[in-house]
Each structure stands twice: as C-alpha cells, then as structure tokens.
Amino acid sequence: MERIFYVKTVTCRVWTKARDYISCSLNQKQGPGGLLARPVLTSYYQSEHFKTRPYDPYNVYTSPNEAILCPDSFQSMYTQMLCGLQDRHQVLRVGAVFASGLLRAIRFLQLNWEQLSVDIETGDLNPKITDPSLRECMDKILKPNPELARFVRRECSKENWEGIITRIWPNTKYIDVIVTGAMAQYIPTLDYYSGGLPKACTMYASSECYFGLNLNPMCKPSEVSYTIMPNMAYFEFLPHESNSSKFTLDSSPKLVDLVDVEVGKEYELVITTYAGLCRYRVGDILRVTGFHNSAPQFHFVRRKNVLLSIDSDKTDEAELQKAVENASRHLREFNTSVVEYTSYADTKTIPGHYVIYWELLVKNAANSPTDDVLKQCCLAMEESLNSVYRQGRVADHSIGPLEIRVVKNGTFEELMDYAISRGASINQYKVPRCVNFTPIVELLDSRLVSAHFSPGLPHWNPERRR
C-alpha cells in the first residue's frame, strides 16, 4: 500500500507507501456577483470529491483532512510535518507542484525541527496549534516516540543538510515536481537536498484548464515534453513570431489548430474551455517536439512577456535565467549555488541599470565567494544578454553596469509570505522574476548583505548582432 506525503501550504507532495502528507492553500475570494474565485487546487481540496474520496491504496494521505484544510498555514504545515516525520519509513516519493514549494518545506523543517522533535518525544502537541478540530485529530495520531525524536535531532542539528530528504525519508525513489521553465534553476538545489534523486515532471496544467501529460516522466528535466490531451479543451496556437497583443473572434492573427502545428516551431497557447473561456491566451510559450499518435507534444519554453527593460533593450525570462545560470558557474569552485533570484530595472540611476537579487546557498562559510568573484558574475551575466542590451552598455551608454545584490537567507521566503498576505495563493505562487512594486523592492533591499557591480564592459560586435 502506498501513502502520499503532500505539503500543500508550500505545495509540497511526498508520496509514501501508506499515506500522503499534504498542505494546501485555502485562498479564495468572493466576486461582486457572489461567485467564489479560487485556484483549481483549492477548489478540489474544498470539494466533496476530496473530502469524501473513496479509499485508494495508492493515495492514502499521511495527514488527516483537518491538517490539509486548516486555513492557518503554519498550523497546517506544522501538523503535516509531524505526520510526515512519523511515517518517514513509508515515504516512496517526495514532491511538489513547483520546485520552490518543496524547498520551502525543507526550509520549514530547518526552522522548526527542535520543537517538532519535542512534540515527537513527549507526544504533546505544540501549544501554537490552536485549531480545536486539528488538536483533537492530532491527539489521536501523535504518540511519544523518543527514538524518532533523537533521530530528528541528530540529523537536523548537523550543519550539512546535503541529502537531507533521503536521510529523513530513506525509501524515497524520486522527486515528483515541476522543474521546467523558470523552475529549472532549482535543479542544483534539489539535487543537493535529495542526493541527486530523479525528478519526475508528470503533468502540465493551470487553474484554467488541464493541458497534458508527460508520457516519459522519468526523463531528464531538459527533455520533458507534454502530450496535449485534446478532450480537455479546444486548443489553438498563436505562432510566437506574431506580436499582436489583442485579437477578437472577428479580427485575429492566424491561429493554428492542434493538428497543424509544426515540429520545432514555438507557439503561444490559446484555449476555449468547457467552463466558458473563449480563445483565452494562457501566456505560455511552447515548442513542438513531436507527436504521440496524432497528438502533438510540447516543451514548455517560458512565460510570455516577463521583461526587464531600461532603454530599447528587452530581456525575457528565459534569457535572464540563462544569464543567471552562466554567471553561477563562477560559484562552483566555492561550493556555492544560487537558491533564488529576481530582478529589477532601476531607472533612478542615470543611466538606469539591471539589479539582480541573489539568495545564495554557501555550503562552506570559510570558502564563500569574494567580492571579485561576484563582480565577475555580474560581467558574465552581461555577456549572456542580447546584443541590444550590450550595445546599450558599450556603444550607446544608455545602460549602466549590472548589479548583483546578495540578500540574507530566507529573504525570498519573506517575499512569498508578503505576497500571500496580499491575497496570493500559496499553491499557485511562483517567485516573480522581475519586480517593480515598491514595497517588494524595499523588502529585498532591507535584507541586503552585499552589492556588486560589473567591473567592465561586455563584448559587443556591431557587425554581428544576435
């Protein structure tokens, strides 16, 4: 019998032999007409389909419904972590909807393992858990286990957390998590915490519609392609070279039907759903990789129009991520990696310049990267950006030197908490790769550790433009 360990508050899912550990965002709003607006996973977990689900030996959760549905994210996460630790030998797979969610769960364990071990040792629940139904439920589950408490203390008190997932849950076979698109930058950190476990990207979906499946879930993250399921909606595709931002049923760019897409070309996904969305632009850019029978298969490229711009330059999400990846190579000899990043187009300076916020995982504090190394990271990023950007830096002097601002560990967790406090769904949250909202910029700057500027100009050849 397989159990599922799924933390939905941080969108983390850990599959086990007997039960599942789930945490969920119960974020929802009521519109002017009285209808509820909420993410699809919130809708599912609040529904009778979930609450009265029939027994399934492959989907028995480690956490009770009370923990899953608790509206307080701390209480929900805390009790689910307790359940997950108690069933640690039954865990077969660990995962999340997004990679950032799984890392947030690990961070929660880092911050709370001491109190969790006390609860496990004594069998008494933390007084911070105040929800009556949750306390009543956990009183039936939580029993004194001094041996497990000693194990948790021994493993979590170590400075080195490499392989912590397989150390805590030794029977884990793979990680079930989305690591395509912008989530690819989490792969090195996931490898660090999981000891290099395989990463399975199983599905492609959104709150608007379920799109497709990965028929080869154990492939490398870079090779993931999703097969579109044509019975889920009516799918059309807007060739990516089209720059039109608006279209109507009467006047629109040339849309391509599902069966007419061409291998190697990129398209923006357009859907018409059973729920009533008509030619809705999802905002995802997909590249056709092949066909399964007559159904096309797509590689997720990026979200559309996530840009940094100072002058005439335009930097999208994929290009920014590639620049971060190239720059982070300078950190390898220091056993350091970029855990999280976002960016900001600072136009207050003259000329304006790109600001990249980095949160670093330094595995050996005695060998942390120096100021000179981080300056070289700035230059490496600039070398990776497009020719229009580099022309602005070198020839036009319309863009200032790129700046990397290193922030304290946990800063991006605070950023997520801030977004949730303003109504964002935990289950749907993704770290914004570009920010311009003043309170967010102020939050990031308030956690500043150091700032580093590009020490020189990137290469630019006016005869060859990329």
From TrEMBL:
Q: Does the keyword Iron-sulfur apply?
A: no
Q: Which GO terms describe its molecular function?
A: acid-amino acid ligase activity
Q: What are the UniProt keywords, alphabetically?
A: Ligase
Report the leader peptide range. Answer: none
Q: Where is the GH3 C-terminal domain?
A: 319-437
The record, for Pfam families, names:
GH3, GH3_C, GH3_M
What protein name applies here? Answer: Indole-3-acetic acid-amido synthetase GH3.8
